[in-house]
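To close the chapter, one final illustration. This time we ask the reader to focus less on the individual chains and more on the assembly as a whole: which components sit near each other, and how the overall shape emerges from the parts.
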Amino acid sequence: MTLSKRTLVATAAVAALAALVGCGKKEEAPAPEAASAAASAAAKPEPLKIAFAYVGPVGDGGWTFAHDNGRKMLEKEFGDKIVTSFVEKVPEAADAERVFNDMIGQGNKLVFGTTFGYMEPMLKVAADHPEVKLEHATGYKTAANLRTYDSRTYEGAYMAGVIAGSMTKTNTLGVVGSIPIPEVIRNINSFTLGAQSVNPKIKTKVVWVNEWFNPPKETEAATSLINGGADVLMQNTDSAAVLKTAEDKGKRAVGWDSDMSAYGPKAHLGSAVINWGPYYIKATHDALEGKWATGQSWWGVKEGAIDFVSVAADVPAEAKAKLDAVKAGLKDGSFVIWKGPIVDNTGKEQLAKDVVADDKFLGGVKFYVKGVEGKVPGDGK
Amino acid sequence: MLRLEARPQPSKAMSIGSPLLALVITVLIGIALFAALGKDPGRGLQVFFIEPVKSAYALSELSIKAVPLVLIALGLAVCFRSNIWNIGAEGQFVVGALAAGWVAMQAGPGTAWLGKGIVVPILLAGMLGGMAWAALVALLRDRFNANEILVSLMLVYVADMLLAYLVYGPWKDPAGYNFPQTITFDATTKIPRLITGLRLNIGLVVALAAVGALWVFLFRTYRGFALQVGGLAPAAARYAGFSSRRALWTALLISGGLAGLAGGLEAAGPLGQLTPYVPAGYGFAAIIVAFVGRLHPVGIVFSAVLMSMFYIGGELAQSRLGLPKALTGVFQGLLLFSLLACDTLIHYRVRFGKRVAA
Amino acid sequence: MNELALLLAATLNAGTVLAIAGLGLLINERAGIVNLGAEGMMLVAAIAGFATAVHSGSDTLAFVAGMGAGALMAAAFGVLVIWLNTNQYATGLALSLFGAGFSAFVGISFTQQRIGTRPQFAVPYLADIPLVGPALFRQHPLVYGAIALALGLTWFLYRSRAGLVLRAVGESPESAHALGYPVRRIRLAAVMAGGALCGLAGAYISVIYTPLWVEGMVAGKGWIALALTTFATWRPTRVLLGAYLFGGVTMLQFHLQGEGVQIASQWLTMLPYLSTIVVLVLISRNPNWIKANMPASLGKPFFPGN
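The assembled structure is written out below.
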């Protein structure tokens, strides 16, 4: 069929056209790079190139927004000793590996992957590029040049619970859950424990969206909780939809990951925020000073990674005082959230009296504490 | 005043010129977009057209994206040429990945004797899975006259939900902290790579073999000929005794098998496990690839490369130029739009002036 | 019981989006045109509506903007498919892909924007009836609008001259053309009306339903709306009921979760699609039923000859 030959010729022409267009520009590119390289070589050592891979959009107002704020703190702290860049909406799939490889190909020597789903790609890339330092958020596998970092979001959840418990009138709290991993279950539990410390009568209802970020579904989940009687909401998802729904329906809600007060001025009770800045600054110091070593970090209020901010004006004074006491206690280590007796919602004792839970226990939480309704989805495995 | 005048016969020149013209239009709009966004159009074009092909690593990454597109588009070309509108290749891809993934998960010490050969049953399972899913469409059309477009489209979502159910439930990795993903497949199941250090794997060989096989099927076999006649002139086909039932089943099974094969290659290759993110939209993008490639095996190779360049270019545009990733979808849609519009020039001429009364 | 009433209310709300889009697509398909670009049109309309709401503070203007965006995209689709006779399915798909990318692109600067607190509506007196009130009478006006639209379309299609002509064009454009009707212009009008309604549905999502902008926020509702028209055998009131059924699935899921029912959510989510296949099989089995239900020229190109 003659068509095939002509198609060949035609598409060869296309390739030629593309090459022509590209050729003209290629010559320009090396020249300015050479100039700037010469200039900086004369002045001072090469700035450390740092790259961030985000799973969501920088504008999500939640998880990724918080990471990007951390990145901006880095730029402020280190000035021209570093150069940062980021790629957003990198899917947790096969494409991630290419993005990481591209970042390394662009000369980045310190790379942060900000979601669990990057674990396998980062492991592969770490093996292929021993000269690059990789940091994986919320993961659990490490390598010689790959370490993990995480934040004690459960401390923020506890503080949120303290405020929520003192503001609820129906004694029913609602949580919009993302994916039923131990971290999220721990947060639901901590939220409940915090609320029970000021109001032992509360109960918590949970609804699972099965995604990190899906505003329309989060809205429906929040509506369902409100319909079920909850008048204060918390979330473990990444957008401001839950707060906005609470605002539109005249209920209250707690912001998550970032300060969400602007999204629901009337509904907002306070936001449990993550400050990635302090950790990023430490990691960069490690890299710049050659002190970087693998391991696993888990920072909380003590290290300045977790905080509860923008508490609403109409929160009663005692609640605010309790919040401050908890914060101070977490900061100096005198207060521990996960200390026995802790009973799960089937009546079984999970933590004996006065026993303090260690990180291993916390990392594997698969039960709901008393006061949380329902069963943990897909548990027992 | 512009008007369209029918040509006495379709223009051969425009058959080739049309995709080129469409590409040129897309590129021009792209340049305008880059300029409007305040970025250097030259750099923009470079990122989309030069960067994805400029090194061995880049070409290897390009092939990872292009191979599934080629395989699926080849099957779709057979379908579309037979006037069977299989819009559900995405679902067949997912079910193929599921089937292949299941076989891969059985790999372990018990299958060590197979060694690397386990890849064969894995890919075979992928093909069978895709064929089974497409067979559903064929069955419903054959026995109940149900429109294959809607059925295949609905089955895409059913397939997605099936994957989600399995990955959140029975197939979840027990050591995976309750995350929705299966175990990572045993090392022996990994689709063999062609060059160490690059992700390029034998999928490329499989795809090229498929191109050859389908070229032969479409243009050198009786069955392929019968299928196409059935698509172009159903009445003539019936008169000649070509069974439309046979055509339906053949086309859908081939298409499903190829899509499933692509799914298997993806699951056992770059992914190495099953997650809710397996559906990558290849099934829909392949429709564009098939059209831009003029439903011809060789044309499909070129259009698959082009589409892959859009994908990778879009990613690079983000990290290099700070351009949004959404550009990829914009370009792909624009390309198809322009192609469809330019295709009219095959059958019509553009004329100025008023029509002279006959 | 009150919770069930609220569930019904939420279902009505969720179904309204699908109903409006589905009715728009029904107009399309009654004229014989399948527009697979519904998802893309809804997305572009969603960002158009949201952007307008942010800048103008007026919901009504936002709806108008959404309708305009939908109609515009539909017009482009219509010219290609009706005058240039391009393949309907491919063109529709191109529209969807383009719309997804374009809306994400334009929407980047809007991801952190907010629109004011959404107004709460209540029909006076009726809204205070216990149970029935919260279930039915505290909805946004468009919820009632969708019902009115379905009823109006039923009247239009089966009782008005224009509706008869539209159906004739959908059954046999050649005959309609022979009778002297401007088939192509009628089809274009149908396509644009359909696009405007899809646009309205899209704007409703971003301005009322989830008043935020996030790329891809239509999340497949356009495809469900396409399934809906088939599921409803191209009858407006059935589209409405089907919309509530399909729309209610997510809220039902969450309700069941709250009750402690442990069905995997994915089976529930699959239901709308499986039921559409079942309906399709049922109506297609009998060639007479197909003729009675599906517009005969659906998806086929029309050449006016000469």
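The radius of gyration of chain A is 24 Å. Confidence is low (pLDDT under 50) at residues 1-43 of chain A. With these observations in hand, you are ready for the problems at the end of the chapter.
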